[in-house]
Design goal:
CATH class: Mainly Beta
Structural class: mainly beta
Distance between the termini: 40 Å
Strand content: over 45%
CATH topology: Porin
Largest sheet: 18 strands, antiparallel
Helix content: under 10%
CATH architecture: Beta Barrel
Number of helices: 2
Shape: globular
Number of domains: 1
Number of strands: 21
């Protein structure tokens, strides 16, 4: 039932990044654009194609010198075309996330309070969108439309130790009971969520090394007031490592992250009990003109669930165009290919994927 959250970064962020900033409070900004993502599968896979077009809507506003208010949502259209049968689609707004942050001291401690408002459109009980949009391997911009009302409180601490910037962050999320499906009169209450993240960064010569580790744990979900024993979310572990170095007039970054989700409770036959997703890549940024930069990249992703497999290799080309003193436009295109085998299947299927993004950020 439970999926990962929207990628607005409205939960407590990377503690290591907090330590490295000279000022946590960002200038007033409005972020929007279009993110289009699609995957096509060979005939041996149970799904023919999946497409999503998402429009992010985010607003960031400082209040004084220490408070920051973030507000974010998406409007998204997602379509799944099975190998046989009619296609399924869903369009509408996602939940709205509202966060208030307060900086204490000289950026050493950040307190955060976030509310998830249930503005998202609900899907039906048997919709294919439930599984595919939330897939940790395919990584769609919007992986859930509706998760009900929840509140999250967190603290992030940062400290300099020698040449290192060190950080530690923690958060707790309480989810209220809600009705997850539009066609079923039943209630669902996710269990309490806890998250701890440690981060560190330092200069290595002219390069910057960053590392982070996140641990998330989940209480027992309830459906209709009764504990759910099937497909419970297990503990999650995320490790991250990156190295950014100057190269000529620009810079190049190497990065890797690994996501592991453990099994908890019983699992239905068609579900992924536990999984590991490893991603490694390289990206760069070089100036083409005073206000225009070229940003290429390449990435490899490997999916290893308890049953099934997947790999995906892609390359991207992008630009960062500073259009005046307030507006930045970032268009990016990505194309890739790989293999995938669904849980329970015996044959691997060819996989191709593409992504076209155009993001605008206006700073007041």
């Amino acid at each position: 039932m439970r999926s990962s959250r929207l990628a607005f970064g409205l939960l407590v962020g990377a503690a290591g990044s907090v330590a490295a900033q000279s000022s946590f409070v960002s200038p007033t900004s409005l972020i929007t654009g279009v993110q289009a993502t699609g995957y096509d599968f060979a005939s041996s896979y149970p799904t023919k194609s999946i497409q999503q077009v998402a429009v992010p809507l985010a607003f960031i506003m400082p209040i004084g010198g220490r408070f920051s208010l973030d507000l974010g949502s998406y409007y998204a259209y997602t379509k799944v075309q099975p190998t046989s049968g009619a296609s399924q689609s869903l369009s509408g707004f996602t939940d709205t996330q509202l966060r208030l942050s307060y900086v204490m001291g000289r950026d050493a401690v950040v307190a955060s309070f976030m509310v998830n408002l249930p503005t998202g459109k609900k899907t039906t009980l048997n919709s294919l969108l439930l599984g595919y949009a939330a897939n940790n391997f395919l990584l769609f911009p919007v992986n859930a439309y509706s998760n009900g009302t929840s509140v999250t409180g967190g603290l992030a601490f940062a400290k300099t130790a020698g040449g290192w910037n060190l950080g530690l962050a923690g958060s707790v999320r309480y989810n209220t009971e809600y009705q997850p499906f539009s066609d079923v009169d039943s209630t669902y209450q996710p269990g309490l969520e806890g998250r701890v993240r440690a981060g560190a960064d330092r200069l290595v010569g002219r390069s910057r090394l960053q590392a982070g580790f996140t641990f998330s744990t989940f209480g027992t979900d309830q459906a209709g007031g009764v504990n759910v024993g099937v497909n419970q979310p297990g503990n999650r572990y995320i490790g991250e490592l990156s190295l950014a170095s100057p190269v000529g007039a620009g810079s190049m970054s190497f990065y890797a992250w690994d996501f592991y989700r453990a099994q908890k409770g019983s699992v239905s036959p068609s579900a992924v009990a536990h999984e590991n997703v490893f991603t490694g890549g390289i990206s760069g940024s070089w100036p083409l003109a005073r206000k225009l930069a070229f940003e290429p990249g390449a990435e490899a992703r490997i999916w290893a669930p308890n049953d099934g497999m997947g790999n995906f290799f892609s390359g991207s080309l992008g630009l960062r165009w500073t259009m005046g003193s307030h507006l930045t436009f970032t268009p990016t295109g990505r194309y890739g290919f790989g293999k995938v085998r669904a849980p329970g299947a015996t044959v691997e299927s060819d996989l191709t994927g593409w992504q076209a993004n155009g993001l605008l950020r206006y700073t007041f």
